[in-house]
Design brief:
Mean pLDDT: 95
Order of helices and strands: EEEHEHEEEHEHHEHEHHEEEHHH
CATH class: Alpha Beta
Low-confidence stretches: none
Helix content: 25-40%
CATH topology: UDP-N-acetylmuramoyl-L-alanine:D-glutamate ligase
Oligomer: single chain
Bound molecules: adenosine-5'-diphosphate
CATH architecture: 3-Layer(aba) Sandwich
Shape: globular
Length: 304
């Protein structure tokens, strides 16, 4: 059985229903990937590495992870900090506005709260957001943990997922994103992220930038335009069928990554894995919210 550990922050999501009511759920980029990965490859072992609080919402999240069959052995508890929270409002044109309360969340202390960093897994997945929420000392600890895992044969997957407001400035984000790439065996750059963070305007510029990072497999996402894969010096483009009835693009990239990684771990080839990941993403964006129901998921996504 393949074992993957996914590190990051899951928050409470409050979505405005009307002027007076909110629907509550739990989401976060790496958490979304963990949920979709597990749905695509149920026979795998998926552990989520994070920290939560001692509040009732943290208990609810833990219960939710159990429902998703995500292993919680690496969920640590803070006695002083709670879960982060974000709120989404959709205006009449379907445009979304986000407000976040996450600066003091328990997840920002994960590396300080970890009782032991001595574990083994086949894959370790993290994102630029996982790094951004940590202070510099914990960022160094994270990269030491990753080096240790690599030495034990674990492979590393990384999505830069650039969120400007989580970083002090662009230079800081560039520095840590490049470190994330440099330890990766599989990377998921997004066209939008690279445009904002590095001013890269096309796949070649992204691949040129990544050339000295020695990443075995690079899977570049570019919305409905298609997926570019660079592996063993061979580049290919996998077309994506454009979804016309998009309801909510939240978690498109996270769902893609979960599907792609699950397919690769099920020994599918990169091109087939990209088509599978794109199908997962295309399904997720036709439903509201980051995590769609398992019924909706299963009615569209064939098992691997
Ligand atoms: P991110 O969410 O990381 O910015 P993208 O916007 O590139 O990532 O979307 C991730 C994946 O979601 C794409 O690779 C594609 O497979 C799928 N996707 C996004 N938008 C559409 C769309 N309009 N139609 C079909 N697939 C889409």
């Amino acid at each position: 059985m393949k074992r993957i550990v996914i590190f990051g922050e899951c928050m409470v999501e409050l979505r405005a229903q009307d002027d007076d009511s909110m629907a509550k759920s739990f989401a976060g980029d790496t958490y979304n990937t963990a949920v979709y990965f597990k749905r695509c490859l149920p026979e795998s072992s998926v552990s989520y590495l994070t920290a939560i609080g001692a509040d009732f919402l943290s208990d609810e999240l833990l219960f939710k992870m159990g429902e998703h069959e995500i292993n919680t052995d690496f969920v640590f508890r803070s006695t002083t900090q709670n879960l982060g929270l974000y709120m989404i409002r959709n205006d009449n044109q379907g445009e979304r506005t986000f407000a976040y309360w996450r600066a003091q969340s328990a997840a920002t202390q994960t590396l300080n709260l970890m009782s032991s960093t001595d574990f083994q897994c086949d894959w370790f997945y993290f994102s630029g957001i996982s790094v951004a929420i940590l202070d510099d000392e914990q960022r160094e600890k994270l990269f030491l943990l990753i080096e240790d895992l690599k030495a034990k044969g674990c492979q590393i997957a990384f999505d830069p997922n650039y969120r400007p407001r989580l970083w002090k400035n662009k230079e800081e984000a560039q520095y840590w994103t490049s470190k994330g790439y440099a330890v990766s065996d599989l990377a998921f750059p997004g066209a939008d992220d690279h445009l904002t963070l590095f001013s890269h305007t096309n796949a070649d510029e992204i691949f040129d930038y990544l050339a000295d990072k020695h990443i075995g497999e690079i899977v570049m996402k570019n919305g409905a335009i298609g997926v570019h894969i660079l592996r063993e010096n061979e580049q290919c483009i996998v077309p994506v069928e454009r979804v016309t009835n998009v309801v909510d693009t939240t978690a498109a990239g996270d769902a893609f990554n979960g599907g792609y990684l699950a397919a690769r771990l099920a020994d599918k080839k990169p091109v087939e894995s990209a088509s599978y990941g794109a199908k997962v993403a295309a399904t997720v964006i036709t439903y509201p919210g980051a995590i769609i129901s398992s019924d909706a998921f299963e009615s569209h996504i064939p098992s691997l």
